[in-house]
UniProtKB/TrEMBL annotation:
A Pfam short name: GFO_IDH_MocA
GO MF: nucleotide binding
Source organism of the structure: Flavobacterium cheniae
Protein name: Putative dehydrogenase
Phylogenetic classification of the source organism: Bacteria, Pseudomonadati, Bacteroidota, Flavobacteriia, Flavobacteriales
Family annotation (Gene3D superfamilies): Dihydrodipicolinate Reductase, domain 2, NAD(P)-binding Rossmann-like Domain
Record-annotated GFO/IDH/MocA-like oxidoreductase domain positions: 156-216
Residues in Gfo/Idh/MocA-like oxidoreductase N-terminal domain copies: 2-118
Xref: InterPro entries: Gfo/Idh/MocA-like_OxRdtase_N, Gfo/Idh/MocA_Oxidoreductases, GFO_IDH_MocA-like_dom, NAD(P)-bd_dom_sf
């Protein structure tokens, strides 16, 4: 079993601690949190070992799970990598693209593995259809959340939209050609609602909307490709595939047939793939353990996390230019 330690014991850090403690692929050694009052409370309540410094924790483990505020990601990752330990780092990978690029360079230099916590890649509704998403040409996503003061220190693009940016980049096998975006700061100092249009070199267009001031929660994506439409509901964990195929010469009584202006008839097929229940956070952590043990490429690489961050900042720059 890989010995693992956690940096950061806030809301998400406590979830990681609990899951790592349950995992059969890790031995949870302990955690470090810079806020001593919170660290003492977590240690007392859950019984996890509290380390007095980052260096002490790094020395005791094989893998470090970084769940600190984003501003601290780079400094923590640098210390971990230079000690020759593997890193799991929550999204976004770092505060700037330059920092992310340096994390990649350090990981290559010290020959350690890294994975970024883009958890929606492990959402069962997405994994159930990902292999069916082939050459999408239009993508539309809505990620809406009710207001929560936690996370409002960063733009909604880095807080919420980056999940969809990463998922889109994972299925569109083409480089980004252009980005257009607008956003509005309603409650926070940074935008609370944003819409972005990403155009890819292969002609695909992605229209992404994110809001943290919605009246209801929604996390849906729709992928349109030749002869098929695929929908993913990340929140309710359901998905649907609607396909168009040539209609049979003699349709059945209940077949749904469409005929275009040229007289071509198509039959519509509906498919609701089975979605296996899972814990996406546990899955992302355990697949990273598999990558380390088997010396394979992590599912969400440091490069993936960096590209998602790069596009996110293109969107933010575009919004800032409109001010």
């Amino acid at each position: 079993m890989l010995k693992v330690g956690v940096l950061g014991a806030g809301h998400l850090g406590k979830i990681h601690l609990r899951l790592l403690n349950q995992s059969e692929k890790y031995e949870l050694v302990g955690f470090y949190d810079a806020f001593e009052e919170n660290a003492n409370k977590v240690a007392a309540e859950f019984g996890y070992k509290k380390f007095d410094s980052i260096a002490e924790l790094i020395a005791a483990v094989d893998v470090v799970d970084i769940v600190t505020p984003t501003m601290q990601h780079f400094d923590c990752a640098k210390q971990v990598i230079e000690a020759g330990k593997h890193i799991f780092i929550e999204k976004p990978i770092s505060n700037t693209v330059a920092e992310a690029d340096e994390i990649i360079a350090l990981a290559n230099k010290y020959n350690v593995k890294g994975q970024v916590g883009h958890v929606e890649r492990f959402n069962p509704a997405f994994t159930a259809v990902k292999d069916k998403i082939k050459n999408p040409m239009f993508i539309e996503t809505h990620r809406l959340a009710e207001f929560n003061p936690r996370g409002t220190d960063v733009p909604v693009v880095l807080d919420l939209m980056i999940h969809d940016i990463d998922a889109i980049l994972s299925v569109v096998k083409s480089k980004v050609k252009s980005v257009n975006a607008s956003g509005v700061a309603v409650i926070s100092d940074s935008p609370d609602i944003s819409n972005a249009r990403i155009e890819f070199e292969n002609g695909c267009v992605a229209n992404i909307t994110s809001s943290r001031i919605s009246m209801k929660n929604m996390r849906k994506s729709r992928f349109f490709q030749k002869d098929a439409y695929i929908s993913v509901d990340y929140l309710d964990k359901v998905c649907e595939i609607v396909r168009m195929q040539d209609a049979p010469e003699v349709p059945g009584d209940f077949d749904m047939i469409l005929q275009n202006a040229e007289g071509v008839k198509k039959q519509i097929y509906f498919d609701n793939p089975h979605v296996d229940a899972n814990n996406a956070i546990l899955d992302e952590l355990e697949t990273f353990a598999d990558a380390i043990n088997n010396n394979t490429t992590p599912i969400v690489t440091l490069e993936d996390g960096t590209e998602a961050l790069r596009v996110a900042y293109q969107i933010i720059d575009c919004m800032n230019a409109r001010k």
